[in-house]
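The passage that follows is intended for readers who have already worked through the single-chain material. We present the inputs for a multi-component assembly, then the predicted structure in tokenized form, and finally a short commentary. You are encouraged to pause after the input and sketch how you expect the pieces to fit together before reading on.
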Amino acid sequence: MSEALHNYLRQRQRLRPVEALPWLLGLAVFWLFPDYLAFGAQVLIMILFALSLDLLLGYAGVVTLGHAAFFGAGAYAAGMASAHLGWHEPLSALVLAGFSAGVLGFLAGLVLMRYHGLTLLMLTLATAILLQELANVNAQITGGFDGLLGIAFAPLLGRFEYDLWGSTHYLYALAVLFVMFCLLRLLVYSPFGQSLLGIRENAKRMNAIGAPVYWRLVAVYTIAAAIAGVAGGLFAQVNAFVTLDVLGFHRSGAVLIMLVLGGAGRLYGAFWGVVLYMVLEDQLARLSPEFWEFGVGLVLVLIVLFGRGGVLGLLDRVRGVGR
Amino acid sequence: MSADAVVLETRGLCKSFGALEVASNIQFALQAGARHALIGPNGAGKTSFVNLLTGVLTPSAGTILLRGRDVTALDQARRARLGLARTFQINQLFRSLTVLENVVMAIAERERLGRSLFKPLGWRSAISEEAIELLQRVGLAEQGLRRVDALAYGQQRLLEVAIALAQRPKVLILDEPAAGLPSAESHRIAELVEQLDPELALLIIEHDMELVFRLANQITVLVSGAVFAAGTPDQIAADARVRAVYLGEAP
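Having made your guess, compare it with the prediction:
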């Protein structure tokens, strides 16, 4: 018995063969669908963004309707550094994007993490709106409503030029996603990551066993904001254009829907949800340019009705029935 | 620390919510090794007192000393890290995690690992071993891999106590540990309490008088937020005023 318990703890975090699948698919897309790489890069960026939300929502149980604030902060940080300061080196610009969003996340977290539930939901929403308005008002540096122009980045690692089909951008986004994912995977099984589960499950008990719940939440909010910032920085680099909608409610809402669609609190839900949502959106928009949102809405209603735990939750249950 | 050193003390502790006074000038001391029961009728302020001791509530007046240190201004987590553990009257568990993970969580926090960001918790074998050993001691090892929400209620009550024990406290407060348990299972809790480290200071709040008289060597009676009587079990049992309050008998 005690051996089984030991093994459980030791093997909880082991890599399973199936975990290679998303990365193999990611590479396969590169060879099989060369026409879709520009779209593919957008998907990869969104997956990274959704992963940052998963850490917050799925692991720590923090609800937010304003996560785009940090995506946008990263996008503007990288974009403005390039357009105004001549900061063209892409990798260091990503670090800058993550750092800026992280600092903002820390400051916002100091206030926001004192609240829960609906109050928190409204305050996160307000934070993102506030930031968007701030970007709108300061048009001379952000480009305001017209968007930030003049973003350009030097070849990746000084060698790889960006081509018209987005193949460099695609592989770049895939590599960044892979590195960030590996860090996140380590993080969620670390004592810190496990304590987030404790906070999600029962903050009262976490306090009683001596965990500084508030500071843990500020820390995870900061980390999630930094990762969202990296996604935003990548977005600015790949699109060479940043508009106010990087901070918009639509983006905050969409990433939440994608995560719930895939399944929150298990990292891979972000992959499923984002791919499903974006491919569906792309295909339906082709099929019916005026009516595609109906199709997306229908799928969402079905998932909420029948698929608690998102696509991954559904798969779990199908496997459970098969046994 | 000598056996009769005071580890938890309150001086002039008061708490009121508007006109409602839930703690009124409470003087209370708990020695190392104490087996102290807190009893009183419903609404006497027992749980409020526990919440004041553990830092869930902030007192309106008075001081709380934990192991000689004024902790009145410290939050719950800091007091826990100083060696104060409690269980809850209503289960507060990590319901979608396994029993094993519940205990591991408490040990990891006690060891101040929560800030560690990379090395997986499951690879720290000292923690796993301690958790498994504890589960065997309380008789939950067989349930170790089950999710808490799949456990029987009695097992959940045991886990409440196990989590507090995993903190290796100097002061342990059990808030109605046997609440809602049939007598066979409350015996299991009593056995567990009897096997506690003799140096540990225990404060137990309980309605089950059989359990109180079995476990406690000191009893404090709380009525309307104030200490009504205090003494050994024999003194309390013989006190006509206590019987009147408690059993509704005419004095």
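Commentary: The mean pLDDT of chain B is 89. Chain B touches chain A through 51 residues (CB under 8 Å). How closely did your sketch match?
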